[in-house]
Amino acid sequence: MKEIQQALELFNTYLQGVWLRRRYIIITAWLICPAGWIYVYKMPPTYEASARLYVESSTFLEPILRGLTINTNQRDEISLMARTLLSRTNLQKIARQADLDLQSKTDLEFEAIIDALQNEIKVSGTSRENIYSITYANPQPQLALKVVQETLNTFMENRIGNSRADSQSAQEFLDREIADYERRLMEAEQKLSEFKKSRMNLLPGSESNYYTQLANEQQKLEDAKLGLRELETRLQSARGQLSGVNPAGGDNNTITTQYDDRIKQLQSQLDMALIRFTESHPDVVETRRLLDTLIKQRNDELSALAESSAGKSGSGFVATQNSVYQELQLNVARLETEVASTRVRVNAFQGKVDELESRLNLIPEIEAQFTGLNRDYDVNRSKYEALLARREASELSRRVDASEQDVQFKIIEPPRVPFEASGPNRRLLYSIVLLLGLGAGLGMAFLRSLVSPVLSRASQLSFICDYPVFGVISHTDKDKILKQVRLHFFYFTALTAMLIVFYLVLMSNDMLFGRSAELLMRVVR
After folding, report:
1. Do strands 131-138 and 47-56 pair parallel, antiparallel, or not at all (unpaired)?
2. Does a cis peptide bond (omega within 30 degrees of 0) precede residue 44?
C-alpha cells in the first residue's frame, strides 16, 4: 500500500512539474502546429485513378485440346506477369507512353520519375480469382488516368508478346532439333542398310540367318550321309549278287528281280513295327500282308523265268544267263555312280557346315553390332517422331494463341478517376499535427521539470534528501506571486484557445470549402 502511495505521489510530483513548465507546452505547440498546418493546407489534392481486370485462363477450348497442345500453367504465368509488371523496363515504357519523360531534362530526373512510379503504382489482386486492380494517384487527374491506362495496356501486351515470343523461340528450337535428329536418323539408316547388305545372311531375325542356315546345312548333311549309307549298302548287296552269278549260267536264287528292294524295305518296316507294336497291331498285320504278296509275286516271276530257260536250247540258255549277269553289272554300275554323286554332295554339305561353324565366334560380335545399330536407329527415330509430335502440338498451340482463345482479358472496370479527390485527408492530418505539437510540448515540459525541478511541497524535500523537515514557511510576497501565476495561466489559456480555434477553423474550412476548392482547381486544370 505504501508503494502505491509513493508511486501516486511521484506521479503527482511529475504532473505538477509539467504544469509548472506549461509555457514550454504552448511554445512548442505554437512552433510545430502552425508550420504543420500550413504545410498540410498547401498540399495539392491527389486523384486516384483505378482499373480492374479479370484474366480468364480456362476456356472452352482447354478440355477439347487437352493432350493435343502444349499446356502451360496459365495461372502461374499470369501471376508472375502481375508481379513483374512494375519492372524498370515496363515502367520506362509506361512513363514514355504517358509523356512523363517530357517532365525530365536529365537522365537523373527521369530515373527519379521511374522510382516514383514504382512506389506509387499499386497492382493488387489474387491469382486464385485472377482479378487484378491497378491504382495510381497524382495531383493531375488526366495524368493519373493515362498512367493507369498505359499500365493496363502494358499488362495485356506483355502477355501477348511474351506468348508469341515464347512460341517463336520454341518453334525455332524444335526446327533445329528436328533437323539435327533427321540427319542422325539418315546416318543411322545408312549404316544399318550397309550392314544389312554385307551381313544379310548372318543377321539374327532374318529369314535365312546364321543359325537357321547352320541347322539347314546340318540337316542336309545328315540326310546325305544317310542316303550314302543306304546306297553303299545296296551297292554291297548288288556286288554280292554279281559275284554269285556265273557269267555263263548260275542259280536262279541269285537273280535280282524288281521286287527285291520293296521286299527289303517292307522287312525293315516290319522289324521297326514289331519293336514298337505287337503282332495284332493293324500296321504290323498290313505290312506283313504286303510283304507276303511281294514275296509271292517274286517267286512267281522266278518260276516263270526258270520254266522259260528250261524250254530253250543250251546256247539260248547261256545267252539268258549272260543277260542276267549283264543286268546285275549295270545295276552295280548305276549304284556306284549314285554313291559317287552322293559322296560329292556329302562333301559339299560338310564344307558348308564347316564354313558356318568356323564363323561361330564371329556371330556374337555381328549380333552386338546389329543390336547397337538398331538401338541407335530406334533411339533417333523415337526422338525424331517425338519432336515432330511436339512441333505439331506447338503449332496447334500457336494457332490457339493467335485466335486469342487460351487467355482472355476482360476489363471489369475501365480506367477512371473519381469525381472527388482521394487525398490528402487534411482533417486527419490537421489532427495529427495538433496531437504531435501538444505531445512534443508535453515532452519538453517534462524534460525541463526533470532537469530543473521546482519544490512545491515539503514531501518533495524529504524525498530527495535524508534531512528531516521541521516546518514550512510561506512566501512573504504571496499576493504578488498569486497574481503572476494567474497572469501566466491566462496567457496559457488564451494561447491554447487560439491554437484550438485555429485548428477548428482549418477543420471547418476543409469540411465546408474543401470540395468546392477541389472542383475549382479541377476546372482550372
Report:
1. antiparallel
2. no
Percent of the chain clearing pLDDT 90 (strictly above)? 6
Output the pLDDT for position 315.
42
Contact 492, 26 (CB under 8 A): yes
How far does Cα 503 stand from its chain's mean position?
66
Contact 454, 20 (CB under 8 A): yes
Alpha helices in 311-425 (DSSP H): 314-358, 362-402
pLDDT band at 75; cut points 50, 70, 90: low
7 CB contacts (<8 Å, ≥6 apart)? none
- Grid coordinates of 128: 486464385
Nearest-CA neighbor of 222 among 352, 340, 332? 352
User: What CA–CA distance (Å, rounded) separates 107 from 214?
Assistant: 88
What angle (nearest 5°) sits at the alpha carbon of residue 429, between those of residues 427 and 434? 95
DSSP conformation letters of 36-64: HHHHHHHPPPBEEEEEEEEEE---THHHH
Each domain of the chain, given as residue ranges in start order, spans: 2-44+424-524, 47-179+394-416, 210-372
DSSP one-letter string for 252-313: GGG---TTHHHHHHHHHHHHHHHHHS-TTSHHHHHHHHHHHHHHHHHHHHHHHHHHHHHTS-
Alpha carbons within 13 angstroms on the beta-carbon side of residue 286 total 6
CATH architecture of 47-179+394-416: 2-Layer Sandwich (3.30)
Separation CA 381–CA 378 (nearest Å) = 5
Q: Give me the pLDDT at residue 68, please.
A: 47
Torsion of CA 294, 299, 301, 305, to 10 degrees: 160
> Interior CA angle at 311 toward 310 and 317, to 5°?
60
Neighbours of 451 (CB within 10 A): 8
Residue 256 confidence class, pLDDT cut points 50, 70, 90: low
**Whether pLDDT at 246 is above 90:** no
How many Å apart are CA 480 and CA 466, to the nearest integer? 32
Cβ atoms of residues 221 and 353 within 8 Å? yes
Q: Is 375 or 311 the better-scoring residue by pLDDT? A: 375
User: How does residue 250 score in pLDDT terms, banded at 50, 70 and 90?
Assistant: very low
* Tens digit of each residue's pLDDT (9 = 90 or more) over 454-466: 666 666 666 666 6
Average pLDDT over residues 475-484: 74
- Report the C-alpha gap between 20 and 229 in whole angstroms: 147
> Residue 147: left (phi > 0), alpha (psi -120 to 50), or beta?
alpha
Residues shown for the chain: 525
